[in-house]
Each structure stands twice: as structure tokens, then as C-alpha cells.
Design goal:
Layout: H1 10-28, H2 33-69, H3 87-104, H4 107-116, H5 121-150, H6 154-179
Helix pairs in contact: 1-2, 3-4, 3-5, 3-6, 4-5, 5-6
């Protein structure tokens, strides 16, 4: 089913173009059927090429739309240079909030956020984001332990290392983005601190 029936479908357009081109070729050929076939084939080739180009453009447009729709929550215009800290210090503190979260769970990002939140909107934002993510990770570890108790330890043995590894990977990604001056957003986090 076509999600946007009012928009032109490139494949339908190409089929219609090819049909019209074949009709014109047949009509324009006098009495030579070979000439009509050649013109019809040439017209069909041009229509197929046109359809391929239109389809590629439509796919590219759809991919961009999906990327925009899947983007993380807005950072609200948070950027570097809006506080008392220098940009280099802001990037470093934002990076540390994320990286320390991967190592110390909630303690590292919470300390960075509490100490530097009044000095830089960027560090305030990244500290809150890292702290909220680590709270989410802590809750998931508790759930893993409860499931482990219910399953004789099997669920906990499987889930806990996966959660820890996932936390480390996302913390590193957050640290890299923060060090570049980009406000990082975790793909999921309970944003309890706002």
C-alpha cells in the first residue's frame, strides 16, 4: 500500500512514460515494423533509465527522512562557550562525565555534574545525561539480579556482563562526542534528573 497516495510514484511514472514512448514510436513508423521496434526499444530504455534515477532519488529521500525521524532527543541549543569555563575545559569535563560513568557507574558523572553544573551549560547537560544513563544502567543491573535470583543465577550471569559492556561502549561513544563539543544523547535513558 502506498503511504502517500497523492505523491507521484516513480515506477508508475516510468511505466506510463515507456507506454507513451512505445505508442509514439509505433505511430511514427510508417510501414517499417523494424523501425517501430527499434524506436520502441530505445524509448523503453530511456524510460527505464529515467525510472531508475527517480527511484534512486525517492530512496535517498526516504532514507534521509528515516534518519531525521530516528534522531535522538533535541539538545536544546546547548553548545560550547556559553559558561564560565573555556571550551577546552567544557569538552574535557563533558568527556569525563561519560567516561567515568562507564568506570564508576553513577559516582563519576554525578560528581562532575554537581561540581561543574553552574559553570557551564554544556557540562551541566552532559553530566545530567551521563548520570541519568548510569541510573538506568544501575536499575537494569538490579533487575538482572532479581531475574538471576528467580532463575538460579542464569539470567544474571548472561545479562550483567552484557549490560556492563553496553554501558562501557555507550559511555565511550558519549565521551568521544562530548570531547568533540557535541551534546551526546544516549539512545535510551530514564531522564530522572532534568
Amino acid at each position: 500500500m502506498d503511504p502517500n497516495p497523492e505523491e507521484d510514484n516513480p515506477v508508475d511514472d516510468a511505466v506510463n512514460d515507456a507506454g507513451e514512448a512505445v505508442d509514439k514510436a509505433v505511430d511514427s513508423a510508417d510501414d517499417d515494423p523494424g523501425e517501430a521496434v527499434d524506436k520502441a526499444v530505445d524509448s523503453a530504455d530511456e524510460a527505464v533509465e529515467s525510472a531508475a534515477e527517480k527511484t534512486a532519488e525517492a530512496v535517498d529521500s526516504a532514507v534521509e527522512s528515516v534518519k531525521e525521524a530516528a534522531a535522538a532527543p533535541s539538545t536544546g541549543g546547548i553548545g560550547l562557550g556559553q559558561g564560565k569555563l573555556g571550551e577546552s575545559d567544557e569538552r574535557t569535563m563533558g568527556m569525563l562525565a561519560h567516561i567515568l560513568g562507564g568506570v564508576t557507574c553513577i559516582v563519576g558523572p554525578l560528581i562532575i555534574w554537581m561540581i561543574k553544573k553552574d559553570e557551564s551549560p554544556f557540562v551541566d547537560d552532559q553530566g545530567k545525561e551521563a548520570t541519568n544513563f548510569q541510573i538506568t544502567i544501575l536499575i537494569s543491573h538490579v533487575v538482572s539480579m532479581i531475574l538471576g535470583a528467580l532463575t538460579g543465577g542464569c539470567a544474571s550471569i548472561i545479562l550483567s556482563p552484557c549490560i556492563w559492556l553496553f554501558s562501557i561502549i555507550l559511555a565511550i561513544l558519549g565521551g568521544v562526542d562530548a570531547n568533540k563539543g557535541k551534546a551526546y544523547r544516549y539512545p535510551f535513558a530514564l531522564r530522572l534528573i532534568s
